[in-house]
Amino acid sequence: MIVENISCGRDDVLQETTDLVDRGYRLMNMFADEGGGQWMNILLRRRDRVVRLSYMPGEQAVPLSDDIPAAMPYERLVAEMSGIAFTDGGREPLVYRRSGDGYPLQKGPYDGSTAVPVPIPPNRSVGDDVFEIPVGPVHAGIIEPGHFRFSVAGETVIELNPWLGYTHRGVERLMEGHLPSDRIHLIGRVSGDTCVSNSVAYSEIAESGSKVPHRARVLRTVLLEMERLYNHIGSIAGICTDTAFTVASSMGNGMLEKVLRSNRELTGHRFLMDHVVPGGIRRDIGDDTLRRLDDFLIGLKFEVEELYDLMDNPGLVDRMETTGTLSQERALMIGAVGPVARASGIRSDVREEAPYETYGELGFVVQVRDPGDVLSRTMVRFGEITESISMIHQCIQSIQPGEVRVRPVVDDGFHCSVVEAPRGELVHSAIVKNGRIWRYSIRDPSFPNWFGMCHAVPGNVVPDFPLINKSFNLSYSGNDL
Amino acid sequence: MMIRTAFQNLVSSARNTEDLGDIVTSRGTMPMASDECTSCGGCIGSCPTGAIMITDGTWRLDLGRCVFCMDCIDACVTGAIGTVPSPDYALDRGDLVVDRHTDIDEVEGVLGRDIRRRLGGSVAVRELDAGSCNACEMELNNLSDQFYDIHRIGVRFVASPRHADVLLVTGPMTRNMAVASDRTRRAVPEPSLVIASGTCAISGGVFVGGDVVEGSTGAVMEPDAYLIGCPPPPDRVMRSLSKMLGLH
User: Fold this and answer.
1) Quick check: A356 and A1 in contact, CB under 8 A?
2) Minimal CA–CA distance to A444: which of B59, B142, B134, B36?
3) What's the predicted TM-score (pTM) here?
């Protein structure tokens, strides 16, 4: 990954950004930090080249969302959390939904006592036969909290707005002021099912000045793919549950449990928590354990194929086909990432574009499908399960003995790492000052994809919403931080 | 294809479901210092949540804060810290502070006879996520799969708090969820129980000190039981519910 820092004037930032976007760069993250006044940072990436565009907004920042719609959620976030004002007016709060003195991500102590809740506005769709259905934050199942507003005309959804932020725990602020190698336990628990990806992205920053042994890198790749495996299997099992296809759902959940148990055998934790650390991995994984994992995965591959055959029946396919379609054009507009983007025909995979760990040494096929409906997303996941099993096999075949942990070293300055988490491109960026974290920003893949769901649901009936939601399989805790 | 699989499953003798006896008698693990501990305190700094205390020369662990990362084992210079069987839950927050002389069976209490009789061996559980990282939720979902099949001990997860006997709370109680959590608690009909499940729900875990979290379930509602783990694995949840409510 090559990171280029560009400072520009307030008047040039729109031109610079649109130039970069025209050259094929895609917006990755936007965050504000402080250092002699407030700075806006705009992160863009094309393959393995990252550009960090920073400027001082002064009184009011330049809105980018008119030209680049994908920038809107980031603008809402910096307005709410860092108190940045924009020239074209206010922004609807996204996460914390409180107003009062001070902003949670500005430096200095944040006093939340004056904060009062900002009510959730009604949807824009109005009419005689239009009803608005509010759902959540406490849902009917065992899932994370979030509030949804559907506007329906009859049974068809015509507008959907998700209002999240209920799991906002102030992670970015909790990172600040600590040693860069000290916060692995917090990072691992930002989003429990993206633990390895978050830990790897964080570690790549915290160890950027040291050389991590090759064996540790191979083992990290194994853990990253195990994480993808259980996420995708869980997601497919969830799709079967939501379509009331009990046989396949039971089979998928059984496979999920088996993968979680092999995770425990590998690292001692069913969700692989606390195993990736800055400088390598915590404990070596023995060759016997890896061989057993390889044998297990061969068996699992047959089970996945059996599940695929089971799901390949007209009743289920009919339910998934044309349901919740996110067109390629819309996916590009909102900046969708990961399996959601790949199901809409966009070839984007960080493992291929900017290989980290040992992905550069592995052979794999990026799974791209059309046209962005529930079926395509399921097919992408099925394809990636097979690829993951193959990648873990390649890792186990090629692993060499050696060290697994060195002392992490990190220099002051700006650092950025991008990892393909199970849900897509995960971006961590940090500004390190005097050996301590000054500002840490995490962009979870679910963050842009939630807005993808707003575009995919309208036109479908209300009972299809759980299915579409499951096919996107987005994280609430990663999004809310 | 589907009919064939269904038929195969009918006639097959292979069962994934774990023996209930195995689940009930197994134990999780926790770090614990042995007699060789010199009370040097080197492990205290390695603990991300401040769960280790050394008072009067005795090494104590607060299971309500421990995230079971086992960093203290690596940090110990004398190699005195190892893993030992752990309790699964406690009815009193203070009982979660254990040392090496603690009888782990005594930590786990049984709820009063009255509430057990009124629940009648059938428990409806409503899960409430107050800001957890989704790992607790995944583990609770796994309880319904073919391996654990928690229905067989009379526990089922219900959609509405109005149908619930037990509110199982996860997460460090974010400020954004405080109002919704309070309303959910008040929607549960009496007699009811609140179980704080997982390190975050008991003590805030790694999120302690955040400006935007309340810090524990206790900030909004008083828990009746504390389930340890980060996240509590399904077998532990099953064991705990079975023991504290006398379900079999």
Assistant:
1) yes
2) B134
3) 0.92
CA dihedral A152, A157, A161, A164 (to 10 degrees): 100
Residue ranges covered by each domain of chain B: 24-86, 113-244
pLDDT at B99 over 90: no
Residues with Cβ < 8 Å from A353, sequence gap 6 or more? Answer: A47, A48
pLDDT-derived band of residue A427, with 50, 70 and 90 as boundaries?
very high
The 10s digit of each residue's pLDDT in B186-216 is 999 988 899 999 999 999 888 888 778 888 8
Task: Give percent of chain B with pLDDT exceeding 90.
Answer: 24
Mutate to test the interface with A, among B86, B212, B216, B220 (most CBs of A within 10 A): B212
Residue B40 gets which letter from DSSP? -
Q: Any chain A CB within 8 A of the CB of B205?
A: yes
* B12 reaches A (C-beta below 8 A): no
**Residue A339 — φ and ψ, nearest 5°?**
-55, -30
Nearest 10 degrees: CA dihedral of B87, B89, B93, B99? 0
Q: What is the pLDDT of residue B232?
A: 92
Instruction: Give chain A positions within 8 Å (CB) of B16.
Output: 254, 257
CATH number corresponding to B113-244: 3.40.50.12280
Q: Which residue of B has its CA nearest to A316?
A: B2
- Looking up tokens 């609140």 gives B194
Topology at the third CATH level for domain B24-86: Alpha-Beta Plaits (3.30.70)
Q: In this predicted structure, what is the pLDDT of residue B188?
A: 92
Say which DSSP state A167 is in.
Answer: T
Residue burial A403-421, b: 16+ Cβ < 10 Å; e: rest:
ebbeebebeeebbbbbbbb
Return phi, psi of residue B105, to 5°.
-70, -30
User: Rounded mean pLDDT of B47-74?
Assistant: 88
Order of all β-strands in the sheet with A436-443: A413-421, A424-433, A436-443
Backbone φ, ψ for residue A357 (5° rounding): 45, -130
Angle in degrees, 0-180, between the axes of helices A72-82 and A446-456, rounded to the nearest 10: 130
Domains and CATH numbers, chain A: 2-95 (3.30.460.80), 179-456 (1.10.645.10)
Chosen from A138, A269, A309 to mutate, greatest number of chain B CBs within 10 A: A138
Q: By the CB < 8 Å criterion, does A310 face chain B?
A: yes
Question: What percentage of chain A reaches a pLDDT higher than 70?
Answer: 100
Q: Are A205 and A410 in contact (CB under 8 A)?
A: yes
Q: How confident is the model at residue B22 (pLDDT cuts 50, 70, 90)?
A: confident
Report CB contact under 8 Å: A310, B2.
yes
pLDDT of residue A341 exceeding 90, the answer is yes
Strands (E), chain B: 28-33, 52-55, 58-62, 81-86, 89-90, 97-98, 123-129, 155-157, 166-170, 193-197, 225-227
pLDDT at A100 over 80: no
Q: Cα separations (Å) of A229 from A59, A247, A356, A387?
A: 47, 20, 18, 10
pLDDT at B2: 63
Query: What is the share, in percent, of chain B residues with pLDDT greater than 70?
Result: 97
Distance CA A212, CA A114 (A): 47
